[in-house]
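Need tokens for this chain, all 94 residues.
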Amino acid sequence: MAKTVIETLVREGLIDFKDRHDCLGQKGRLIPKIDALILDELQAEDRLNAKVREIMKAYEKKIRDGEADYPVLFQMIKKQLIRDMERAPSGARR
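Here are the structure tokens for all 94 residues:
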């Protein structure tokens, strides 16, 4: 995935490698870093979804009784948690 990201960024002119002769070496060093960033973001998304599911346990009866729609409630809670995280001091995130 990281290789595709790098190729897209280069093709779109968003990044340029200074040493054109060592382009593959530079990409090779960049790929693990981008992979780590992608993994970190996916793990953060998983943690956020787990937190949403935990909060939703309080609404199980309403969902079961048809008083609340699971996907709508899930998205509402998730958006609120994201807003809360954006307002929190940077050290409190993730």
